[in-house]
Amino acid sequence: MARVRVHQHVNPLSPFYCFTPKPIEIGNVFAVPQLPLHLDIGCARGRFIFKMAEIFPEQNFLGVEIREPLVVEGNRLARENNLTNLHYEFNNATRSLDRLLENLPVEVLQTVTIQFPDPWYKKKHAKRRMVRGNLVETVVEHLEIAGRIFVQTDVEFLAEEMFEIFRDNRGLREIEISGNPFPIKTEREIAVEEKNLPIYRAMFTK
Ligand SMILES: C[S@@+](CC[C@H](N)C(=O)[O-])C[C@H]1O[C@@H](n2cnc3c(N)ncnc32)[C@H](O)[C@@H]1O
Fold first, then answer.
1. Measured distance CA(169)–CA(157) in Å, rounded
2. Whether pLDDT at 57 is above 70
3. Does the beta carbon of 44 sit less than 6 angstroms from any atom of ligand 1?
């Protein structure tokens, strides 16, 4: 089947993406809402959490993505494959992740992944980068005690910038890791590894 065609990058600060989402009600999207939740922010086509949802039926997986056609396609594939522990949401995480997660029950969010976010290389575009203080605060607020946040990128300056924002958050502690702790790689990770380029990874816990 043909892949859904989308713009390669979208500007999260453009008026089109300034919408206010409805808070997610996990009882409406997962068959067993009380399962531990894994949130993947900037999931693109969502293949990472698709495969994770197949391997780990005892967890729920929520993908957040700003390119809506990918969200529609992801939810269609989840339905067709009877993955009742997998759901995707159209959301601009830079602006309104807090609103999306507003009604999330406490002590449900166990894992958060942010993998290869768009680097926005130019200085004048720095504000478009996804990992900013407000996003980290939202994630920390909802993360359960001892929950984990995994961040990876192939862009060195972005790794330094993102890891510093996480390190500055007083609610988090960094954990040493020797590689990717998950059994599945994202599409971007596979592409980077095929080119033998370095990947910068960090893990934090609450
Ligand atoms: C380079 S891709 C990486 C995708 C995937 N995580 C991977 O590792 O293959 C970055 C993704 O983040 C999404 N994204 C960028 N800004 C976003 C935002 N503000 N909110 C939600 N998703 C965003 C992009 O649309 C894109 O799908």
1. 19
2. yes
3. yes
